[in-house]
Design goal:
Mean pLDDT of chain C: 87
Number of helices of chain B: 15
Largest interface: A-C, 75 and 56 residues
Mean pLDDT of chain B: 92
Distance between the termini of chain C: 34 Å
Chains: A alpha/beta (458), B alpha+beta (473), C alpha+beta (99)
Largest sheet of chain B: 9 strands, mixed
Strand content of chain C: 5-15%
Helix content of chain B: 25-40%
Radius of gyration of chain B: 30 Å
Oligomer: heterotrimer
Helix content of chain C: 25-40%
Chain lengths: 458, 473, 99
């Protein structure tokens, strides 16, 4: 690893400071990373600097989840994905800002300040992996790790004009990913190109005995290159193209569809009838799991502790958690606790699980019916203005309407830039069947090659 | 009018695994605090559970030993509550889909003979850490070494009608689990813990309000605590008051129970399936293999000891209480000893040692050899005991060599015996006369004199024929 | 469903979250909005609620072999309060919890 490469990275990290996209990096840590790169020698990601979302634990830099409650916390162990990146010769560039505990769609809910969109500081980069996305979009790093629970990589990838791949649930180890919605969480890479993101996914994927929800499979091989799409059927689900879809988004998607057809793909209109249930179901299942996952932040074993006024244990718990968590985290804990509390489980949690089952079945049947991949818009709008959706949590949740269903179903999905509308990136989403990443990535690679991501769509 | 007592017990046993339930830390006892911990059992951010196959296997063996139906699919769930020794803020347990349900065991009771006690369910879960309230003034100290230790929770049906029955149930339950190799089941070490529910009612009336009694550290104390609670409840009811739903703690020093707290509405544990752990699916072939490896259980073994070994009921009870004792007896018999003699040895000399040290110092083969020496007249009973004591110290030498070294071998040589007999008869002419005159009882006197003269070394079996030959001449 | 400040207070107690009186009304309004929103869920018959499994359909069990994830720093390195090898918290008197 050349010293000049580290110096270049440092310069980019410093010059992008206005984005507020990083939470931690250090010269000393980068020196250590460079030494590791030299000792690994040639690896699949040799010398590639990668930003890591700050809800993935590292022993060399703190992991805060953008929360006061974990201020200064340094993990005594390292996430499997980080270990795998290092073994492949990558260099951990920094820890990236996020919505606190990954709860949000705009990266405004960080205890350490919001992240700015690289193209316009008044806009949000999307979220919750907004720091990782902004760092890739601003060319600070070629790739980054984010995490998906309900679209937290695909949505910011679309807003920032880069590529984000959510793998099949169970494709990548969660060991060391701070749990948020355990049945939904996926470590997911960003790249400037499909190739960059796919190479990172290959390295971090594969069975990990430390995470029993990973499939017993070897690492993903996403090297397939397609020259044509003949024989491939792409489904366009009606529910993702509502009449009131933003015209710029619609135009960009139509362009994408035209390109797919030109390459030989068969385009078919399909229906995923339970799509409308996805966001409501998500906002029960996810907070229920989150409320339990965040119970461990109690000021006893690690993290910040607030003594509380009464000085007893219960006051310590309440003060530590009440003051350590930000407003969106507290809201979700309350909703999740409510949804599982005595008398409400069947009305909320059980119903949401039943809806989730229907959403899974929707995808299963469409893919069983000869559709290879689905193509949809990633988001209903382009990047929105900071503060615009903060007043109403439900409006913020609806920003995830097209990304939530694949998260609930556990199927792979990705966003790639289609072009621009009003000067802002528009993302197109490909959704594949369970464990169908290789074909999905191959199609995305070909589509990427026939699109000009920075061109205004008319 | 009489009161009827209704008792149900919940028993937690620590499964005899090498590692914890959901992480690969060693299970530990008595280690320095917070030294046998890892990211998972500390509940660190990002750490995940991975369930232990051996814990599942032991849970299945336990369930089968208690006659339960083991379910092919069971689900781990999160039980949510805050406590400082519960690192994740939830306990991984099983809720609506437990490992096993619907078992029953037969219990010998003092008042009602053999009764059947239902086992409602057996499920797997992880233990919490320990909260120590007396270490540091004004503070509670938390040790997480125990956090994550695998437990089976065994919920018994409220089929018990007295504190003595509760104790008998625990004794039988423990014996079954120890036989099945599921757990050490030591209340002293905390590897078996009991929570008891008790209510009283008029016979035939609906169930009364139950209370929960905790903090009992022996089966005897379970019985004492329940006696105390039964008395308290009856006194309340006979005094025209009602029983409140409370949790009580037992004070072994005073023998009394004390109300710990009034139970509020049922805790809202907000159970839901743990998304970190897919459903546990046990193949039927795997389950059948577990049935095949279930060791012989107490009833079967007791039957065999009675029928094949011809041992009396008392011996059978003593020798089968602990499988390690039963195994020992059995090995001695297999090595060639007569069963009743082996039983006497084990219940006598060997058991005394075992109770002190927890192990048998003399191997079954060596004890069988000693028993054979005694049976052949090579050693007297007292000499054999002397040799045994030496065998405990000297674990190498064979009993014959030890007997020779100690000089306690019985004299069976006819010439030597004849010499002692002649000396005795010569020294007691009067007694010889009386014997010859018909006082046959004197034969015992002569044998005793010969033993005395030989300083106990003469083989009594060899003396009698010589005496008879001399006196009847 | 109507969510009042009393509901929020009760749930906050279950979740061990300190919420100031001043925050209660706005949190109640937020929660009510969220709960009303999620009540749009179609009324699908609720079957076996544990049956939703993404990822592997059955649990793979681990061999009983000592192999913990090592700790690069001891527990006390991150402990907010630590004494004589123990994590410490205010004495538990009056907590009224069991287990």
């Amino acid at each position: 690893m050349m010293a000049s490469a580290v110096a270049g990275l440092v310069e980019r990290l410093e010059s992008s400071a206005h984005l507020n996209a990083t939470l931690a990096w250090s010269h000393a840590a980068l020196e250590g990373e460079a030494a590791n790169v030299r000792s690994v020698g040639a690896g699949p990601l040799s010398s590639m600097p990668i930003a890591v979302k700050d809800n993935i634990v590292t022993t060399t830099l703190p992991t805060t989840c953008a929360s006061r409650i974990l201020e200064g916390y340094v993990s005594p162990y390292e996430a499997t994905v980080v270990t795998r990146l290092r073994a492949a010769g990558a260099l951990i560039a920094c820890k990236a800002n996020l919505d606190e505990f990954a709860m949000g769609s705009s990266t405004e809910h960080s205890a350490y300040g919001r992240v700015h969109h690289p193209l316009d500081p008044d806009l949000v980069p999307g979220g919750s992996s907004g720091g990782s996305a902004a760092l890739v979009a601003a060319d600070v790093v070629p790739a980054a790790l984010g995490s998906e629970t309900g679209g937290s990589v695909r949505q910011p990838a679309a807003f920032c004009g880069i590529v984000g791949i959510k793998p099949t649930y169970g494709r990548v180890s969660r060991h060391g990913l701070v749990s948020f919605g355990s049945s939904l969480d996926c470590v997911s890479p960003f790249g400037r190109t499909v190739d960059d993101a796919a190479r990172v996914l290959e390295v971090i994927s594969g069975h990990d005995p430390r995470d029993v929800t990973t499939h017993a499979l070897p690492p993903l091989d996403a090297s397939e290159h397609l020259h044509r799409l003949d024989g491939i059927t792409i489904g366009l689900p009606a529910e993702y193209f509502p009449d009131d879809l933003d015209p710029g988004i619609r135009a960009a998607c139509e362009l994408g569809v035209a390109r797919l057809r030109e390459q030989g793909a068969t385009i078919r209109r399909v229906s995923l009838p339970h799509t409308g249930a996805a966001v409501p179901a998500y906002y029960i299942v996810n907070p229920a799991e989150a409320a339990a996952n965040l119970a461990r932040y109690d000021g006893v074993r690690y993290g910040t502790r607030q003594i509380g006024d009464a000085g007893d244990l219960r006051a310590l718990y309440r003060a530590t958690r009440g003051r350590g968590f930000g407003p969106e985290v507290r809201r979700r804990i309350l909703v999740g606790t409510f949804a599982l509390s005595a008398g409400y489980t069947d009305r909320y949690y059980a119903r949401a699980q039943a809806a989730r089952r229907c959403i899974i079945d929707d995808f299963t049947s469409v893919f069983a019916d000869g559709v290879d991949l689905l193509f949809t818009p990633t988001t209903p709008t382009t990047a929105f203005r900071a503060g615009e959706k903060l007043a109403d949590p439900v409006q913020m949740y609806l920003a995830d309407v097209f990304v939530c269903p694949a998260s609930l179903a556990g199927v792979p999905a990705m966003s790639l830039p289609l072009g621009r509308s009003g000067g802002l990136p528009v993302g197109g989403q490909l959704i594949g069947p369970s464990l169908g990443e290789a074909r999905m990535i191959a199609v995305a690679r070909l589509l990427e090659s026939v699109l000009d991501a920075t061109a205004e769509v008319r | 009018m009489e009161w009827e007592t209704v008792i149900g017990l919940e028993v937690h046993v620590q499964l005899a695994t090498v590692t914890k339930m959901f992480c690969a830390c060693r299970t530990s006892y008595g280690e320095p605090p917070n030294t046998v911990v890892c990211p998972t059992c500390l509940g660190l951010p990002g750490a995940l559970p991975a369930a232990n196959l051996e814990a599942v296997r032991l849970g299945v063996l336990g369930a089968r030993a208690l006659g339960c139906t083991v379910h092919q699919t069971s689900v781990f769930a999160r039980k949510n509550y805050f406590y400082p020794d519960l690192p994740k803020g939830y306990q991984i347990s099983q809720f609506d889909k437990p490992l096993a349900t619907d078992g029953a065991i037969l219990v010998e009771t003092p008042e009602r003979g053999t009764i059947r006690v239902g086992i409602t369910r057996l499920h797997l879960e992880e233990d919490a850490g320990k909260s120590l309230h007396d270490r540091i003034p004004g503070q509670t100290a938390i040790d997480l070494n125990r956090a994550g230790t695998p437990l089976a929770e065994i919920v018994g049906f409220h089929d018990l009608r007295s504190p003595a029955e509760a104790r008998a149930y625990l004794t039988t339950l423990r014996q079954l689990l120890v036989y099945a190799g599921v757990s050490e089941c030591s209340m002293e070490k905390g590897s078996l813990r009991v929570d008891a529910n008790l209510s009283v009612r008029r016979p035939g009336a609906p169930l009364g309000t139950k209370t929960e009694v905790k903090n009992m550290n022996s089966f005897a104390n379970v019985e004492r605590a329940l006696e105390s609670e039964r008395t308290r409840q009856i006194a309340l009811l006979e005094g025209g008051e009602s029983v409140e739903q409370v949790t009580l703690t037992f004070n072994a020093a005073t023998g009394a129970v004390k109300v710990l707290r009034v139970k509020e509405d049922a805790h809202d544990y907000r159970y839901f399936p743990d998304p970190d752990l897919p459903p546990m699916v046990l193949e039927s072939a795997w389950l059948e293999a577990r049935d095949a490896e279930l060791p012989e259980l107490p009833t079967a073994r007791q039957g065999r000891f009675r029928d094949a070994f011809g041992l009396p009921d008392y011996d059978v009870g003593v020798l089968t209480a602990e499988p390690v004792v039963a195994d020992y007896v059995e090995a001695i018999v297999t090595a060639g000893a007569e069963p009743k003699v082996a039983a006497n040895w084990v219940m006598g000399e060997a058991m005394a040692r075992f109770k002190e040290t927890g192990t048998f110092a003399v191997t079954p083969d060596r004890l069988a050899a000693l028993i054979t020496l005694q049976g052949s007249g090579f050693l007297s009973g007292n000499a054999a005991k002397e040799v045994f004591r030496e065998m405990v110290e000297d674990t190498e030498a064979d009993p014959k060599a030890i007997a020779i070294r100690l000089g306690v071998v019985q004299v069976q040589d006819a010439g030597a015996l004849e010499g002692w007999v002649d000396e005795v008869l010569a020294a007691h002419p009067g007694e010889v006369e009386r014997y010859k005159g018909g006082d046959a009882k004197l034969i015992g006197f002569f044998v005793g004199q010969v033993m005395k003269r030989s300083r106990g070394k003469a083989d009594p079996k060899g003396i009698q024929p010589i005496l008879a030959a001399r006196l009847d001449r | 469903m109507k969510i009042g400040t009393g509901d929020v207070r009760h749930i906050a107690t279950l979740a061990e979250l300190e919420i100031s009186e001043a925050e209660l009304p706005s949190l109640a309004a937020d929660m009510e909005r969220i709960v009303t929103f999620v009540e749009q869920l179609p009324d699908i018959p609720v079957g076996d609620r544990t049956s939703v499994t993404v990822g592997p359909s059955a649990l793979r069990l681990r061999e009983d072999v000592v192999d913990p994830v090592p700790l690069a720093r001891p527990p006390e390195a991150n402990a907010p309060a630590w004494r004589d090898g123990f994590f410490v918290v205010p004495a538990l008197d009056g907590l009224g919890e069991d287990e």
